[in-house]
Amino acid sequence: MRTLHVQWLGAFAEIGRRTWMVLALRILSWPFNVAVRMGARIITACIKLTLAVLGMVVFGGFIFGVGYVIFYPMFSH
């Protein structure tokens, strides 16, 4: 039967082993986390660019339509 002292050492060794395992997993997963974050930023940037272009097209068409309705009768003679 083990003494209490040896059991405590075993418990600390187990905690240390698990800590190193968790640390190793975090280090190994770090590049994947960075890739996911960069991918999310790239996707977000593409969505923002698409919305900006769509907004320019819609707003530009609206301005052109209003200008056409206002100024076409003046210059149609």
Question: How are the secondary structure elements laid out?
Answer:
Blueprint: H1 4-75
Transmembrane segments: 51-75
Keywords: Membrane, Transmembrane, Transmembrane helix
Throw out a few tags for this protein:
mainly alpha, rod-shaped, transmembrane, transmembrane helix, membrane
Detailed description of the structure:
With 77 residues, the protein is an all-alpha fold. The chain has one domain (1-76). It is 94% helix and 0% strand. The protein contains 1 helix and no strands. The protein has one helix spanning 4-75. It starts with a helix and ends with a helix. Keywords: Membrane, Transmembrane, Transmembrane helix. The chain crosses the membrane at residues 51-75.
Main β-sheet description: none
* Count of helical regions: 1
Report the mean per-residue pLDDT as an integer.
Answer: 80
Give the oligomer, counting copies of the same chain as homo and different chains as hetero: single chain
Fraction of residues in H or I helices: over 70%
Rg, Cα atoms, Å: 32 Å
Secondary-structure-based class equals: mainly alpha
Shape: rod-shaped
N-to-C SSE string, H for helix and E for strand = H
Question: Gap between N and C termini, in Å?
Answer: 111 Å
Uncertain runs are: none
Strand content: under 5%
Report the count of strand segments: 0
Number of domains: 1
